[in-house]
Design a protein that fits this description.
This protein is mostly helical. The chain contains 4 helices and no strands. 76% of the residues lie in helices and 0% in strands.
């Protein structure tokens, strides 16, 4: 009978040291899922706009509420973060940005850029009167 060979088990998440790059890779996937849900809200808004005043007023009442605005704000952030993380992944696909300092810079850029773009979009929306 042959001797059993002890093989190492695959490392579990507890073995790895968490890095910002790892965390934002997971967040990138989560924002992709969130964009699916947010797109349903966008479809609801478009269908309501095509259906008439009463349907549109219902959607506007929801998106104008505190919860609605938080959802739309979150959707805006998910969109901006996912876009910038997608650019980060695209840069990696081109074969650039793999050095430790470049990885960190791209990751911080996606994180901070997503927040800054989201806040900027909302400031502009409020400034031009698009949000009441």
């Amino acid at each position: 009978m042959t001797a059993r060979i002890e093989r190492p088990l695959s490392p579990h998440m507890q073995v790895y040291r968490w890095t910002l790059t790892m965390a934002l890779s997971i967040v990138h996937r989560a924002t992709g899922i969130a964009l699916y849900a947010g797109t349903l809200l966008l479809v609801w808004w478009l269908v309501a706009a095509a259906s008439g005043h009463n349907a549109y007023a219902t959607v506007q009442a929801f998106t104008g509420s505190i919860i609605g605005r938080l959802i739309v704000f979150g959707y805006t952030w998910a969109l901006m973060h996912h876009m910038l993380s997608g650019i980060r992944h695209f840069v990696w696909d081109l074969g650039y940005g793999f050095k430790a300092n470049e990885r960190e810079a791209l990751t911080w850029g996606a994180l901070i850029g997503g927040i800054v773009l989201t806040v900027l979009i909302w400031i502009i929306a409020y400034a031009i009167g698009g949000v009441r």
